[in-house]
Amino acid sequence: MGKSFFRRLGRLEPFEIKNNSFVLRLISPTLYLYIWLIEYLNPSIFILPYSKGIFAVFFLVVGSLPLLKRENILAHYGLYIFLVFFSFQYYLTYTLADNDFAIDCILGTYIVMFGGILTINNNFLLLCYSTFQLLHMTYRVRTNTLDPTIEVAILGSTIAIFTYSFIILNGTLRHRKRLENMNAQLGDKVKQRSRDLEERAKELYESNKDLEDFAFIVSNDLKRPLRNILNLAEWLTSTENVKDNLHGERAEIYEDLFIIKEQVLQMDMLINGILNYSLHLEKEKDVKEIDADSLVKRVIMVNSSEYCEITMRGDFPSLYFNESQLLQVFQNLIQNAIKHNDKDKVFIELSVVDEIDCYVFSVRDNGPGIEKKYHRKIFQLFQKLELKSHIDSIGIGLALVRKIIERNGGEVWLESKLGEGTTFYFTIRKD
């Protein structure tokens, strides 16, 4: 027997510790009441003074030890179970002999003997328990003046209990061994799956890194012509070039140049916002106080035309949000209303309602409307309800709107009737 043998002695599985702890705590009051009932029904019976109280407390204490959650106790809890049943069984056999093997005493002895065998799971401890109790019972029977028939009955019953208990326990141990083997195989599969997931995660990380590098390169390539357009527009709309042309034939041309300049600035902001959002680079520190009224008016100026009239209703507040993301929300909703409108003249109304803990914004149009069965689908990535070559859409706008709003703690939904237009709603928290 090496050190490993003694380390395993009394070791139980967590569920066994929990079950045995409950059983011992249940035995404590039951034992006390059982002995008290025997004394009441048979006043002539001999019971050691204070024994029922002492053993009731003993079972309660040992049953409560796992509640301390001490590692050294849990590691060898089977030893404590062995000690409590071993000592109590010795006491019962001793009391049984002192009372001339009375039937009410022998019944309780057999019950505890059987329970002890089923509770002690270690083979070595079980062998010690069974051998000693059998020898002790044999000694008490042989030293007592009993009828030979009763001696044979008592010893035969004791041997039968041990024999059948061992048979039952042996089957339980085989089943337990199979479970342990299955758990070991499952553990190996889990480890292998974990290694596969780690390798997959590494591959995804490398792919994401390549995608990140690609996105930065593409964004820089997009920004370069935008910067050139912006520089040219700023030069053409400089004070020297504009002051003599604010009125007259060229006034309309310079007004268009101002719109181009504003569109370029918004395009640059949109590229930054989409890039940062898709790569999760936007930090909470990018949230700042935004004048929603000014931002919405800028978006309206860019998207309005002789075929599209956009109006505002309500007092648009100042709020804390990421400016580029809020711009994306209004821009995508307005562009969506324009692209999918089937009327000769597009009417769009932007409004806001001040609720207790949030602002409820809405974008209403006079378009064809959306069937109710599509109300959830249109917020999914790359989902479109129509395939028309003249509509410049890839089905990402509304999905991006939903992600931005929900990421910031808000909600997005819509109300629509066929032929009567659609209203998109979204909320922004005040805190």
Q: Biggest sheet, in brief?
A: 5 strands, mixed
| Overall body shape | rod-shaped
Can you count the helices?
Answer: 13
**Can you list the strand order of the major beta sheet?**
2-4-5-7-6
Report the average pLDDT across residues: 79
Relative helix content: 55-70%
Topology as a string of helices (H) and strands (E) = HHHHHHHHHHEHEEHEEHEE
Bin the strand percentage: 5-15%
Structure notes:
The chain is α+β, with helices and mostly antiparallel strands. 63% of the residues lie in helices and 11% in strands. The protein is built from 13 helices and seven strands. The chain has helices at residues 3-8, 14-41, 51-64, 71-75, 77-98, 103-119, 123-142, 148-236, 239-242, 251-278, 292-303, 323-339, 397-407, and strands spanning 288-291, 308-313, 318-321, 346-354, 358-365, 412-417, 421-429. A five-stranded mixed sheet has the order 2-4-5-7-6. A hairpin with a 3-residue loop joins strand 6 and strand 7. Helix 2 packs antiparallel against helix 3 (51-64), helix 5 (77-98) runs antiparallel to helix 6 (103-119) and helix 10 crosses helix 12 (323-339). The longest helix has 89 residues, at 148-236. The chain is rod-shaped. 22% of the residues are buried.
